[in-house]
## 1
Amino acid sequence: MVELQKQDLKTDKRPYNFKKRSCPLSITGAPKVDYKNIKLLKRFMSEKGKILPSRITFVSTKKQRELSKAIKRARFLALLPYVNK
Amino acid sequence: MSLYELVFIARQEISPVRAKELAKKVIDFITTKGGKIKKEEYWGFKSLAYQIKKNRKGHYVFFILDASGVAIHELGSQIKLTQDIIRHLFIKIKEKDFDKKPTKMLEENEGEDKQ
């Protein structure tokens, strides 16, 4: 395993094929981020009800801002919980 | 005149008929102030994610209104005085964001009914 990595370093290649993931909300045909679309919002929240960081979900900065606003609106209307105990 | 979304949650003790009466009050208020109702939806008797004023469930009513800022402000203070409404939210939306199709909420409700 170590040898493999050394070889890869020599050839200036990454040991694994890291595919660059693009933002799931920016592709064409992606659903609109809206506080009424609870199913979509839930995909970007942890089980405890926290908003997942974009470094995990790969959401772009712009969409993450929209997302956090939408989630906070949905929370205010008791459509989503502030905390899941 | 600009577009606003309004969602309000009515108390759990009242009947759906009374919730619809509340909705009608909103419509009457806006029309007398010279505004228009673009969309009206009754999302149903849904359970809340957390308790609001000891309510575990509530009637959700949704509107898209075309009205002046003054009218919306007055409507807001009217709603605050209505004891049957436990929470409301106004959101100003852009003209291009207006969609004639029913919102996602209604689709989910229909799905629930089928189960």
## 2
Amino acid sequence: MLYLIEQCLNGIQLGMLLFLLAAGLTLIFGIMDLVNLAHGSLYMLGAYFAATFATVTDSFLAGIGLALLATLVAGMVLEVIAIRPLYGRDHLDHVLGTFGLLLFFNELVRLIWGPAGLTLSLPPEMLTAVQVLPGVYYPLYRLVIILATLAVALLLYALVMRTRIGMLIRAGAWNREMAGALGVNIKLLYTLVFGLGAALAGFAGMMQAPLSFVQIGMGENILILAFVVIIIGGIGSIRGAFVAAIIVGIIDTIGRAFLPDLLRHFVSYSAGSSAGPALSSMLIYTLMAAVLVFRPEGLFPAAQR
Amino acid sequence: MSVRLNARNAFVAGVIAILALVPLYAAASGNTFVMSLFTRIVILAVAAVSLNLIMGFGGMVSFGHAAYLGIGGYAVGILAKEGMNSGLLQWPLAVAASGLFALTVGALSLRTRGVYFIMITLAFAQMIYYVAIGLDRYGGDDGMTIYKRSQFGPLIDLSNKTAFYYLCLALLLAAIYLVWRLVHSRFGMVIQGSRSNERRMQAIGFPTYRYKLLCFVFAGMLCGLAGALLANHTDFISPALMHWTRSGDLIVMAVLGGMGTVFGPVIGALALLVLEEALSGITEYWQIILGPLFLLVVLFARGGIDGLLAGINRG
């Protein structure tokens, strides 16, 4: 039971990271109609920036702050140089162009930081575990991730729904020509939105960094999970991304933790051990297939945004 | 149909001639690397031709095409590991398994369109990738060596590199011919029609979903065959065979050569792999050049190499 609670929390934590990635993707898709494969590269860049700045300033928080700023700027520069010419083109062009960018970023990181990868170590006070329920201890840092990303999600909601910038973003998503005709600087708006998406992805990368290794290509597999999230949630819907991210995070984590054991009860031990990991990695894709059969537009179609 | 002599056709004929003469050059110069590189080019060209059928002609941008390379490869590898080495068993099974997977993926993903389709095909390919990683008996993450190539008895000996190369080349030419016939048939017209205006095709009375699904399955089977060839070429299978960046490579090949032309993907495969070799000879960090190059192709040479040739022709 304790293990189950712990795994649920791990699932929520993974879900929150997925949400950060998916929110940026879905925002960029919803507003600019752009498929961005290089989104995972920004996740990676965020982690590399954080590891570097944390070493230079010798402070975890300062590292995170500077890295956020750096990914925001990197995203905006990327948008101006390479992404802007892709707007209004075929989705295949987006896929190809951003695929090229992804290769470029992987190689650039290898050139600058070397192939070995980095580590981002936590401040000692983060390394403790806290009692979340009587008798249930959970690592403080993972709890911090959940709370921090929840705060970001709320901020994002407030930004999009309650501020003037958010109003312009929504207007731009609704009808870009009309918004432009009414005097909104669409180009600048797009650059801002792309930068925002980049910062969200980078934030996810730097949150994940202390739990694993900062390495080349770290953003690629999680990017595809984020795709699954926005397919389930409905492309263009931030609310859908949030719900789907948590569902995917929990199912994936719980599946990996329990399915192999469960299988061993029903079939032979060896069959359970060998088929378990393969089957549990299929779970979320099966969920995606089911959503596609019953609700091809996702759980929260973007029209309700 | 008469074939006119123009820059494009002359180029195609030249490429075929080069492909046919590679083993002679390799034998004369003793350069075995060229042989290995071109076998790889020819095999991946088969995969790119199959992708081009659904992407270039059918407008279905599949970002999971490497999954079929993997399924075809694993069919050969798994059977070889279990002691069944007959190619007459392995290859049909590779094709059938790929077709079955394509049927499942296609039936689900063709319910959607546009960017959904791209992401869903990508996600399903990633699923198969993780399944392969989970297969501990067949090497898991590390992959596994295939100790014996597919056996065809007295028909052909695949361990003879020249014979294997010509078999691959013959299959490539057969695939191109088949796709060419398909594209110019009534079936192909329906597929192309639903790329440009699906609703109108439905209004005329064509069940476009079924046509597209059939096309999708056929492409998957063809790519599965390429996977079986690839496993025989490298004597090795691993999940990396179907890593999603490889699906990206296949898309690049199809676009680079010129989408919507039957022969384009062959030129694309040739161009991409030769370019990779050339760039990696210049610098260790060659992808830093290759990546932006893709972006430039997208922005400025949308018709690919074939488009450039057609441009020469128009003068």
## 3
Amino acid sequence: MSHVVDSYYCRELPRSDNLTFMLYRLGGWVRPIAFIAFLLVAWQFAVSRGSTRLLPGPLETLGGIADLVRHGLLLKYITASLFRVTWGFVLAAVLAIPLGLFIGWHRRAEMAFNPLIQIFRPISPLAWIPIAILWFGVGDLSSVFLIFLSCFFPLLLTAINAVQRIPSVYVNAGRNFGLSEAGVVWRVLYPAVLPQLITGLRITLGVAWIVVVAAEMIAVNSGLGFLIVDARNAGNRYDLVVAGMAIIGMIGLLLDNGMRSLEQSKSLRWDYSEE
Amino acid sequence: MLAEAVTLETKLSARNVHMTFTRDGKSTPVLNDVNVDVAKGEFLCIVGPSGCGKSTLLSAIGGFLAPTGGEVRIDGETVRGPDPRRIFVFQERGLFPWLTVEGNIEFGLFKLPKAERLSRIAHYIKMVGLAGFEKAYPAELSGGMKQRLEVARALAVKPDMLLLDEPFGALDSITRLIMRGELLRIWREERNTVIFVTHDIDEAVQLADRVAVMSGRPANIQKIVKIDIAHPRDISSPRYLELRNGILEQLGLAHQI
């Protein structure tokens, strides 16, 4: 009997001990870094030539970051923002995912919950700011609550959709082999939804990080969002404003890369479309 | 192997099976009084026009759908749900993509001790010719390999019956021919009762001890044709052509093209 070897095996890249592979990996970094460097130089050039002050230049921004480091604020603000995002995000994940899996699995639950979800979902987390202040006062708790809200509905919908997208053959096969209801949930449902959940978590973490700025605008006294508002209010320090923006962007990139590396795990890299 | 060699103990009997689907208040009768007996160790093929309800009948036999009338009995017991004693093999789509070849075969063996699980995995991987691919994921296998894996996963739980729903429908014609030979070889080794749904009349005449010919919807079984040719079957022999033409005639398709 002859085996048809799939083209998969021909697509495999050279291993990391191979020079070509190292260069390939390096090439992937060189280009974006060179392009960013080019943009920074162009930006600096434009700022130094212009007479109006629409934006501080990269050197000023760097000076702003150095200022923050000198006053011991950079790490403090990053930690404060990450702390709020982590709490809001983790709380949302812990509540939304099991609830979403339950709703997706039980058709009747979906019929009951769906209208409610569709009403709450389009309300921007920012619209909740007054309610957040009313319920939790001004401070950390309100910020965490807003981030929680921004994560909860997207994660809930991801979990519901993930369950409903499972082809019924998997569930039928699980039952056919004699699994109990709990067995089907644990050995079929859970592995089948995992890749989609992880993608959903990655996207939602990005959203949470975007919302942190707004969440910190309500009277907290630390964090990168606070930094941006405070720098403007306390004397138009636009170098600090842009410094805050740059740091938010870079941390967002790192968070996304971290979540992406989770997605690359081999047992998660399948998808229904691959079949 | 002739049908006579099969013991005549009845494994399955479908009695007056009716199935009516109701959707949006409209009811569609799909199966209309299906009656069939299958002997223990027999290889029965079910053929019929597409959409006639062959798969519905197989799902009822597998316990995935409850008939709206009549009953299916296996070993004298009424079928009330899926059971590991009768494994349904899907068109290579039922494999779990998150498990390796080994993991898929191991899936149904969770009640067995570790040593027994490992020996069954090794045995069935070898039987279906997937040695060397133990750690591969389904996405890395060809269509024929996936289909063999699904058969191996089914056989590993040692079911009395295999229910195959157009298992080779998605394969190219050469792979399909090879797979038919493989299935017959495995069936001779394992002696399960096999119910095999196909729309391919040649496939049915090549494989089956008997072929059940279904009518259009609402379907019943029009005729059961006994294929009295020994394996390996010569597909150009006069008897083969005669039986094949008989089935075509029964479906009203002979001399049409």
